[in-house]
Amino acid sequence: MVRVTYVQPDGSAREVRLSAGTSLMQGALDNGVPGVVAECGGACVCATCHVYIDEAYLGLLDKPTPTEDEMLDAVAAERRDNSRLSCQIKASERLDGIVLGIPDEQI
Ligand code: FES
Q1: Do the domain assignments include residue 107?
Q2: How many Å separate Cα 9 from the centre of its chain?
Q3: Residue 106 domain-assigned?
Q4: Stated pTM of the model
Q5: Does some domain include residue 73?
Q6: How far is the CA of 94 from the centre of ligand 1 (A)?
Q7: How far apart are alpha carbons 97 and 79 in whole angstroms?
Q8: Which atom of ligand 1 is nearest to the CA of 87?
Q9: Does 46 contact ligand 1 (Cβ within 6 A)?
Q10: How many domains does the chain have?
């Protein structure tokens, strides 16, 4: 299992354990973590699963695809250097302990 911590805009944090291969978006939905809307269900066409990746883990991720990069321009909250779409990141052992910030708005 892969430990993933979701941090809300108010600073409260929740750690969950995901099976490898589960997207970080799906992990939020499955565990009732608020703030990840995921209107398109993971098809990379809604930008409502936006998260901020803790800098310590950013370098472990594959670069965003051109499609994800384009969708990141459409996020509701501020796009930052560590912005990613959580539906495009799958839990894996190398990401164990990853920390994600949830933005204050998704729509
Ligand atoms: S769930 Fe729609 S872009 Fe991620």
Answers
A1: no
A2: 14
A3: no
A4: 0.96
A5: yes
A6: 23
A7: 23
A8: 4
A9: yes
A10: 1
